[in-house]
């Protein structure tokens, strides 16, 4: 069972089951626990090939046992997401933990910028269970519908779920309007029906200072 203690610490109660978590994110535990280092990008040979192609560097550990583990990372805000057979797309740096039964992978979601030819590879979680994602500041969950598509600054994007189509648009970004941007500017556009998680603080992106 996933539960929050405050907004920046995740407690996971286990009775012989397991959880996957970002390597190094465990801050305490009680009871009897066993730890195993995993690799990001997915399970099996396909996951290994995907990681080699994408340069995916996320390292994940599996914790299994009886007791409670507490997880946190750099005092980031933690958000719980319940999956009911659907798929969650999350930036690797924003992943904290997930039920071990959720299938993990890496997917290519498009080109970040035409000039650099950079790609956007996103961690995926799929199945039934809980996941915990992090954000720099409290995350905001925005609804996308057929009538109301959503455009997001890539530095503020955290995750999305639902039946959404994702595309990249080059042009003016929000910070460029105020003369603060540089390099190649782009935005992420979501269409369809689903949810998008954004954070109130922008990270640096590989497609330029946006």
From TrEMBL:
Origin: domain of life: Bacteria
InterPro entries: AIM24, AIM24_sf, Trp_RNA-bd_attenuator-like_dom
Pfam families named in the record: AIM24
Official protein name in the record: AIM24 family protein
């Amino acid at each position: 069972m996933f539960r929050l203690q405050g907004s920046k610490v995740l407690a996971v109660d286990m009775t012989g089951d397991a959880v996957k978590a970002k390597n190094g994110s465990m801050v305490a535990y009680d009871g009897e626990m066993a730890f195993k280092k995993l690799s990001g990008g997915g399970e099996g040979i396909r996951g290994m090939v995907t990681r080699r192609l994408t340069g995916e560097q996320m390292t994940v550990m599996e914790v299994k046992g009886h007791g409670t583990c507490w997880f946190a990372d750099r005092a980031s805000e933690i958000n719980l997401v319940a999956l009911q057979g659907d798929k969650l797309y999350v930036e690797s740096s924003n992943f904290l933990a997930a039920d071990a039964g959720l299938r993990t992978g890496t997917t290519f979601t498009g080109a970040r910028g035409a000039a650099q030819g950079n790609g956007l590879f996103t961690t995926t979680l799929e199945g039934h269970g809980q996941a915990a994602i992090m954000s720099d500041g409290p995350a905001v969950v925005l609804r996308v519908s057929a009538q109301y598509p959503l455009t997001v600054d890539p530095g503020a994007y955290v995750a999305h779920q639902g039946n959404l189509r994702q595309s990249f648009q080059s042009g003016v970004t929000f910070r460029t309007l105020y003369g603060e941007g540089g390099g190649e500017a782009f935005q992420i556009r979501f269409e369809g029906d689903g949810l998008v998680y954004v954070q109130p603080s922008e990270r640096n992106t590989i497609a330029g200072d946006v």
